Amino acid sequence: MMDIQCIALDVDGTLITDDHQLTPKTNELLRRLHQEGKVIVLCTGRGPVSALPLLAEMKIDSVLITHNGAVTLHSGTREILHQFDFPVAWIEPIVQYCREQQVHFDINTAFDMYAEQMRPEAEKMYEMYFANPIIRENSLEDVPSLVKFTAFGTREEMDALEGPLREIVANSEDLRMIRSGDLFIDIMHRNATKGRALAAFCANEGLNREQVAAFGNYYNDVEMLKFAGLGIAMDNSPDEVKAEADEVTLSNNEEGVYHYLMDRMFVHLKNDPPIPK
Question: Domain segments of the chain: what residues?
């Protein structure tokens, strides 16, 4: 078995259940691994405001990779260690198209989120993700640079939107588009990926990729799974994502992260005081 020192975890669809809960068993196991000196890194499409509560729940102070790799920060100090940002002008055609098609979208700096409307379904989604967007008529006004644009809608709406947005993004050599979930399409700087951000973090910490285990479930996790010495896809992942992983574990709703870590990598913890059921 590899000498795993760093555990990189996607959040939605991986670490937490579909009802957005971090189970007690998973929480306690990660806390104990952190106390043992293992590096726990959340690598998420969420912004910091939406991701920091999870680390607080686990009582873990660590580096956090957010916005699909666009922003890396320290959870304790909230210091931004690195970000891939881009000028607002780069996404003006995308914003205009979404306005015309009445697609809900938001734009993001490292810590702030802006939107131009708030439909009931969007309000419910933001509440679920601990997000509180600033609503204003022109979301692009007085924002010098961004780290992420996100379109939101039903799966059918995002399926229909993906092609047209990809055509617009193809006109720019500096942007990339990724389907970060069934209900989300993200557009970011072309260099912003979870894998690239995780590689930079590991290089800074003196960790090699063979010491990293990464868990993910969606297309925005592929670069991270391929970088890690051990890439583990959840059973709820699309087949294309599973094909890029080294192994597949149980689904997020079956506590796949907990079972893989406990049964395959850190069996010695079974001799410690029982982890809550």
Answer: 6-82+192-271, 86-189
Residue 110 in contact with residue 149, Cβ under 8 Å?
no
The CATH number, out of the four listed (1.10.1040.10, 3.30.420.10, 3.30.2010.10, 3.40.50.1000), of the domain defined by the range 6-82+192-271 = 3.40.50.1000
Q: Environment class of residue 273 by beta-carbon count within 10 Å: exposed (0-12), middle (13-18) or buried (19+)?
A: exposed
Name the residue with tokens 């479930």.
217
pTM of the model: 0.91
User: Which two tokens mark 260?
Assistant: 């893989």
Dump pLDDT digits (tens) for 245-256.
999 999 999 999
CA distances from 269 to 4, 25, 201, 203, 265 (A): 15, 12, 27, 28, 10
Q: Quick one: what percent of the chain has pLDDT higher than 90? A: 91
> How far is residue 275's CA from residue 277's CA, in Å, rounded to a whole number?
6
Say yes or no to pLDDT of 273 above 60: no
Distance CA 180, CA 167 (A): 18
**Which residues make Cβ contacts (< 8 Å) with residue 112, sequence separation at least 6?**
134
pLDDT at 50: 94
Q: How far apart are CA 230 and CA 30, in angstroms?
A: 17
Which pLDDT band, with edges at 50, 70 and 90, does 27 fall under? Answer: very high
Regarding the domain delimited by 86-189, which CATH topology (the fold level of the hierarchy) does it fall under? 3.30.1240
Angstrom distance (rounded) from CA 42 to CA 91: 27
Which tokens sit at 113?
């989120």
Show the CA angle centred on residue 201, arms to residues 197 and 204, nearest 5°.
140
